[in-house]
TrEMBL record:
Residues annotated as transmembrane: 31-51, 63-82, 102-119, 140-161, 198-217, 254-278, 290-312
G-protein coupled receptors family 1 profile domain mapped to chain residues: 42-305
UniProt protein name: Trace amine-associated receptor 1
Alphabetic keyword roster: Cell membrane, Disulfide bond, Endoplasmic reticulum, G-protein coupled receptor, Glycoprotein, Membrane, Receptor, Transducer, Transmembrane, Transmembrane helix
Domain of life: Eukaryota
Pfam families: 7tm_1
Family matches, as Gene3D superfamilies: Rhodopsin 7-helix transmembrane proteins
Subcellular location, record wording: Cell membrane; Endoplasmic reticulum membrane
Family note: Belongs to the G-protein coupled receptor 1 family.
One term under GO cellular component: endoplasmic reticulum membrane
Record has Transmembrane as a keyword: yes
Length: 336
């Protein structure tokens, strides 16, 4: 018989969420979890930069804009309630709000990796098929990719939560060992853990790994010819070389973004898919910490852009200095 780590223990000095015999216990976690919420506002600067400056209205940046929106919504609607739940171990809202919160959490995490997969595809076209890139990747193409990322992730997440497919096959265990008054537990049975982890992380992650591996091989093979072409054309015009340089630099930057995403979320999804098969013996505190490590990714992206994208640093200076409010500031050239 499995002794669940979720089982409440009655202690004289135990603090409960509610005055109820089956109430969840209040927990005490370090307040450092809240730091991530304050860092998430960096995504607002990415959104304002790309939306305001016309020079940044490119297919790649439109995908980055939508990705930043995912991270921003995560910080506004998901992380504050997750902070309360992590610090106190209690849920003070109704069950409906718990489902809405859980659904949005899954939706935004899934949408983020779908966006990164779209970015990988766009970069593949830019690097591996530069002559047909403009005909393949248009505004309508990007709009379809962004719409599909949002719609698919929304339908998948809320169908899973509201139909309670995440409990299927483990209802008895959940009701006897996990469910309690004042709790909002993100619980997955064996089947739902496999499906959710594969759809939301592992399959898109493997696709992105394959795409960027191919991009690396192609880019490495093109490097010498690109440098030779740049040297030949430099006396006439610097634009071809600069365009090639920006393409390679943008691809490497987005590869770093994808790599950081995979590093931040891989530990959680590994635990998520393993835990049901080892009778839920992974401590909830560890899983909760891994979730916050995944949330950290949303705060890191703006710093990656600031460190690797000169145009973002220039846009940031314009926004902070207030120059963004000047007339025709949207036409400022952030790169030549």
């Amino acid at each position: 018989m499995v002794v669940s780590i979720f089982q409440n223990v009655s202690l004289g000095n135990t603090s409960l969420c509610y005055d109820h015999p089956n109430s969840c216990q209040k927990l005490s976690y370090p307040l450092a979890f809240k730091i991530v919420f304050y860092l998430i506002t960096g995504n607002l600067l990415v959104i304002v930069s790309i939306a305001h400056f016309k020079q940044l209205h490119t297919p790649t940046n439109h995908l980055i804009l939508s990705l930043a929106m995912c991270d921003f919504l995560l910080g506004i609607f998901v992380m504050p309630l997750s902070t309360v739940r992590s610090v106190h171990g209690c849920w003070y809202l109704e069950d409906l709000m718990c489902k809405l919160h859980t659904g949005m959490d899954i939706m935004l995490s899934t949408a983020s990796i779908f966006h990164l997969m779209c970015v990988s595809t766009e970069r593949f076209c830019a690097v591996c098929s530069p002559l047909t890139y403009r005909s393949r990747v248009r505004s309508a193409t990007v709009l379809c990719m962004v719409s599909a990322s949002w719609v698919i992730s929304t339908v998948f997440a809320y169908t899973m939560v509201f139909s309670e497919l995440n409990f299927k096959g483990a209802e008895a265990f959940y009701n006897s060992n996990v469910r309690c008054v004042g709790g909002c537990h993100v619980f997955f049975s064996r089947g739902s853990a496999v499906v959710t982890s594969m759809v939301s992380f592992f399959i898109p992650g493997l696709i992105m790994f394959g795409i960027y591996s191919r991009i690396y091989v192609v880019a490495r093979g093109q490097a010498r010819s690109i440098d030779f072409l740049t040297n030949q054309l430099r006396t006439a015009s610097n634009r071809p070389g600069e365009f090639r340089y920006r393409t390679r630099k943008g691809t490497m930057t987005l590869a770093v973004v994808v790599g950081v995403f995979l590093i931040c979320w891989t530990p959680f999804f590994l635990c998520n898919i393993i835990d049901p098969f080892i009778d839920f013996t992974i401590p909830p505190s560890l899983i909760d910490a891994l979730v916050w490590f995944g949330y950290l990714n949303s705060a890191l992206n703006p710093f990656i852009y600031a460190f690797l994208y000169p145009w973002f640093r220039k846009a940031l200076r314009i926004i902070v200095s207030g120059e963004v409010f000047r007339r025709n500031s949207c036409r400022i050239q952030l790169y030549s």
